[in-house]
Amino acid sequence: MTIKVLYFASLREQLGRSGDEFDFEKDKLSSMNIGNLWQYATSQSSFPEELLVAVNQEYTDQFALLNDGDEVAFFPPVTGG
Amino acid sequence: MTIKVLYFASLREQLGRSGDEFDFEKDKLSSMNIGNLWQYATSQSSFPEELLVAVNQEYTDQFALLNDGDEVAFFPPVTGG
Amino acid sequence: MGVGSTVPRKILIVEESFDPLWLQGDYEADSMGDKTDYGATANFIGTMRDFNEGDDVLSMTLEHYPAMTNKQLNEIVDQACEKWPIQNTLIVHRVGEIFPAESIVLVTVWSAHRNAAFDGCRFIMEALKHQAPFWKKESLSEGNTRWVAENTDGG
Amino acid sequence: MGVGSTVPRKILIVEESFDPLWLQGDYEADSMGDKTDYGATANFIGTMRDFNEGDDVLSMTLEHYPAMTNKQLNEIVDQACEKWPIQNTLIVHRVGEIFPAESIVLVTVWSAHRNAAFDGCRFIMEALKHQAPFWKKESLSEGNTRWVAENTDGG
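The joint structure predicted for all components is written out below.
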C-alpha cells in the first residue's frame, strides 16, 4: 500500500525535503487518517491550524481516510495571483 | 442675451434640426427656466419624463434658471458603452 | 476639486476602429513604464454584438456631444479616484459607424490594490453607460434603423 | 459535471516573462475570432510590485504544485461558468523567478453581458488567490528571503 506525500513552499524548506514515499501494511493504512499520516511523516504531534492538505489534488482535511496509491500534499496557505 | 440650444440623437431627428440659437430680452430670460425654454423652442407643452438636459455640459433639470450665453442641450437617455 | 482631479488619465474619443489591448499596452508603456508600484490592472472592453432585442444588427452609428462627453468622463474619473486609490485610468470610446465584433469602449484602471482596480473599473463603466452623452442607432437586417432606447443595468 | 465544464477556456502556467495583453489578443483571435455574439470582456492583470509590508522587494520566486494547479483552476472556471453565462476564459499564471513590473497573473472572461464578465473575472481571481496552489517567496533588499504568509482579501 503506497502513499506518496508532497511538501511545498515554507513547509518543504522546514522539513528539508519535498516529499516522502511510504509503504504501509494494509491494516495500518486502513486505520490511518490524514492527521495520523502527518504525525508519522513529520514527527509533529499536532496538525497546524493553517496547514492545508490535498489528496489526489483535491482539498480535504485531517480527518479524511487514505487509500492505496493516494498522493497527499501538505502546504501552507496559498499566495498566488 | 443669447441662449444656444442643442438637440441630440432621436430628439434631433424628431425636431429635424440639431440646434437653435435664441436672443432674448433680459427681462424675458430672467423669467424663464429650462422647462419654459423647452416649450418655447419645441412648441411641446410638457417636459417629457425621460428627457435629459444639460446646461454648459452639466446635467440639470427643468427648473434650473438661465443665464446669458448658456449652452443648453436636450437629449434622450444616453446609450453609450 | 478633490484629490481625484490630479490623478493621471487619458480619455480618447475615436472615429475609427481601435485595438483596445494595443492602446492599453501603448498607454501603459508611456505613462506607467517607469513605475513598479502598481500591482493591479483591471479593464473592460465593450464589443459590438450582431444582435439586440432579438433582431440582427448590421451596424451601429454612435453619436455624442463632444464638449460634454469629455467633461463628464473626466468627472467620472475624478469621482472614482476619490473613492479608491487609483493610479491611472484610460478610457477609449468609439463614435461613428461601427460593425459587429468591433470595440465600442475600453476602460482600464491601474492601482496598487486589486479591489481598487476592480471597483474603480466597474464604477467608471457603469457611470459612463448612464451619464456620458453617447447614443446608439442600430441598422437592422430588415433595412430599417432604430435608436437604442436605454442602457440596462449590467446588460 | 455541470454545464461549466463544457465552456472553452485556456489555462497557461508560464516560466518566462509574458505579455498579458498580447496573450489575450492572440487567444481572442484564435478562439473568438469568428464570433460576433460577445459584448463584454473583463480582465485583471496582477503585476509584481517592488514593495511589500514596508520592505523593498528585489524579486520573487513563485512555486506551485503543477498537477493540482491545473485541476483547481479548471474547477474554478467551471464554478464561474455555472454561476454566469461565460463564453470563454483565459488564465495565465507565472511561476519561477519574477521581477518588479513583470506580470504575475492574467484572468480574462468573455461574455455577452458585462455583469457576467465583471463578476466572473473577479470570482475567478479571488478563488485563484485563495485556492490555487501557488506560493511566493520574496527576496528583500537586505539580502534575506521570506515566504509571503497569506493573501489578503482584495489587497
